[in-house]
Amino acid sequence: MAEDLDIDIDDLERRMKGAMESLRHEFGSLRTGRASASMVEPVMVDAYGSPTPINQIGTVNVPEPRMVTINIWDKALVGKAEKAIRESGLGINPQLNGTIIMLPIPELNEERRRDLSKVAAQYAENARVAIRNVRRDGMDQVKKAKGNGMPEDDQKFWETEVQNLTDRMIGEIDKSLEAKQAEIMQV
User: Are 23 and 124 in contact, with CB atoms under 8 Å apart?
Assistant: First the structure.
C-alpha cells in the first residue's frame, strides 16, 4: 500500500522536460537572420512517394553566417526539395547550383523581428501551459494518495516537491525565451 502513496516525481519531471525540448525545437525553427541548420528541419520533401525530412535526402551545412546549403544526394529530388522549401513558409528564396540548394538568409527588418519575438513568446506560453498541466496531474496524484491514507506531512512534502519542479521548469522557459528574444532583436 505504501507504493500507492508515493508520487512519481521522475515521471512528472520527464514530462516537463519533454515540454522544454519541444520548446527548444520550436525556437530552433524560428528564423533569426542568422543561418542555422535547424531552420530547415520542419521542411518535408515528397521523396519516393512519401513525405521525408529534408535532412534525410541531403546534407545540410551552414558554410557562413547568412547561408544554408543543402547538398541533395539524388539529382531527381533537387526540384522537389526546392519546391518544398518555397512552400514551407520559411520566407527564403532557394538558389540552385547543380545538386546544391543554397538558402541565403536575408536581413530581418524591425517589424519582422518584433513579430518573431511575439511568436517566440507564444511558443513559450504554450510550453508553460504544458508544464502547468503536468503540475495539475502531479497535484491530482497527491490528492488521490491523500484519499488512500497518505499522512498530511507527506502530502505537504509532495505538493512542495511538485511546485518546486514546476517553478524550476517555468524559470528555464523564461530564461530560454529571454535569450531567444535577445537573439531575434540583435541586428
Answer: yes
- Three-state DSSP state, 8: coil
Residue 133 has pLDDT above 90, yes or no: yes
Split at pLDDT 50, 70, 90, the class of 32 is low
Scan for cell 526546392, then name that residue. 82
Global pTM value: 0.67
* CATH code, domain with 8: 1.10.132.20
Task: Examine the fold and report which residue of 104, 127, 148 is the final residue of a domain before the chain moves on.
Answer: 104
Q: What are phi and psi of 50, to 5 degrees?
A: -140, 150
Q: Note down the domain range covering 46.
A: 34-104
Would you give the DSSP letter of residue 40? G
Cα(first)–Cα(last) distance of the chain, in Å?
A: 60
Q: What is the rounded CA–CA span in Å between residue 111 and residue 136? A: 38
Residue 17's pLDDT is: 92
Domain identity same for 120 and 78: no
